[in-house]
From TrEMBL:
Membrane topology: Multi-pass membrane protein
PANTHER family the record matches: OLIGOPEPTIDE TRANSPORT SYSTEM PERMEASE PROTEIN
Pfam family, one: BPD_transp_1
Keywords, alphabetical: Cell membrane, Membrane, Transmembrane, Transmembrane helix, Transport
One GO term of the biological process aspect: transmembrane transport
Alphabetized InterPro entries for the sequence: BPD_transp_1_N (IPR045621), MetI-like (IPR000515), MetI-like_sf (IPR035906)
Protein name as catalogued: ABC transporter permease
Transmembrane in keyword set: yes
Family recorded in the similarity comment: Belongs to the binding-protein-dependent transport system permease family.
Domain of life the protein comes from: Bacteria
Domain ABC transmembrane type-1: 142-355
Basic and acidic residues composition-biased segments: 11-22
Localisation per UniProt entry: Cell membrane
Length: 364
């Protein structure tokens, strides 16, 4: 009969698993399966915690926006009733009746509760000056804003990223210095001032483009498409000129950081050309920091461009927001502010969720 070894000479299962030499047969497979399940469960818990943290942060931000929007626009100087009746022969009784119609005669707490209940129903009330539901007006003005600001975002991102790559790869060259200097100069210029200059030179002076509006009345069919594009040139150039610099600078800085990495030296040592090193290795990593910037700017698309749309009389959400501020039209500006902020919060949340998928280094 074979003599069994003493019990202390037999390694414990945990010790075998720790040092990686699991027993053969079904026992080793069971240990491997248990380890894999443990790692999967741990990864699932980390992902759930990461998702929960991001969702909680977005929810807290949205609640803060909803509360802020009610009080923020009530500290703006101005009485809606007085502004809307200015220059009209109205009596004090009529002004009081108008205030009751708007609900401005109610206590502040009652107005706040009514506002919160409306937000929960996704109902922001009716505009004071237009006497129409806020959401219907948002739906009408959404298309022009998406067209103008969406196009400017696409052009700005493409132009800024391309110039940023060229500037980083030819760091210190004359073209790099000129492009960076021009971008910084345009970025520092107020958008409304640049828009006015373009109107004076290219619209009023040379007469190449319309001074305002989105289209010419009476134009239909394919001619209307060309007419809208003609009207969009100056506001589009204004938005691109003041926005593309941030893409250029972020892309240039990210690529410069990557160019000093060891993996690029290794790639060159393997015989890859500089264009291949840039396209296959440097650019994918340098694009990561611009992801958040792109998604945040997508969120700002709904916000429109308040000053640019106002200067060019572009019938979008930005101009509507400006018109609401001039009264102040409380339901209109409150609703627009919540919608704008919710879009930014949502896009920021999407970027937080997508970023770990494209960059393994930040995965939970």
């Amino acid at each position: 009969m074979t003599e069994l070894p003493p019990s202390d000479a037999v390694p414990h299962l945990d010790e075998v698993r720790d040092r990686g030499d699991a027993p053969r047969g079904t026992g080793g497979a069971a240990v491997a399966l248990a380890d894999r399940r443990g790692r999967d469960d741990d990864r699932l818990r980390r992902n759930a915690a990461y998702l929960g943290k991001r969702l909680l942060g977005a929810a807290v931000s949205l609640v803060a926006v909803i509360f802020t929007s009610f009080f923020l626009f009530r500290i703006i100087p101005g009485d809606p009733v007085r502004v809307m009746t200015h220059g009209r022969p109205v009596t004090i009784e009529q002004k009081e009746a108008l205030a009751r119609e708007f609900g401005l005669d109610k206590p502040m707490l009652e107005q706040f509760v009514s506002y919160l209940l409306g937000v929960l129903r996704f109902d922001f009330g009716e505009s004071f000056q237009y006497n129409r539901p806020v959401l219907s007006m948002v739906g009408e003005r959404l298309g022009p804003t998406l067209l103008l600001v969406g196009a400017s975002l696409a052009v700005s991102a493409a132009l800024g990223l391309w110039l940023g790559v060229q500037g980083a790869w030819k760091h210190g060259s004359t073209a790099d210095r000129v492009n960076t200097g021009v971008a910084l100069t345009l970025w520092s210029v107020p958008s409304f001032w640049l828009g006015l200059i373009l109107i004076v030179v290219f619209a009023s002076g040379l007469g190449w483009f319309p001074t305002s509006g989105m289209k010419t009345p009476g134009v239909t069919g394919f001619d209307m498409v060309l007419d809208v594009a003609h009207h969009m040139v100056l506001p589009l150039v204004t938005l691109v000129a003041v926005v593309y610099a941030q893409y250029l600078l972020v892309m240039r800085s990210s690529l410069l950081d990557e160019m000093g990495s060891d993996y690029l030296t290794t790639a060159r040592a393997k015989g890859l050309r500089d264009t291949e090193v840039k396209r296959q290795h440097a650019l994918p990593n340098a694009l990561l920091p611009t992801t958040t910037l792109v998604f945040i700017n997508i969120g700002f698309v709904l916000f429109g461009a308040v000053l640019v749309e106002t200067v060019f009389s572009w019938p979008g959400l930005g101009k509507l927001f400006y018109e609401g501020l001039s009264v102040p039209d409380l339901p209109l500006v409150q609703g627009l502010f919540v919608i704008f902020s919710a879009a930014v919060i949502l896009m920021n949340l999407v970027s937080d969720l997508i970023y770990p998928l494209i960059d393994p280094r930040v995965r939970p």
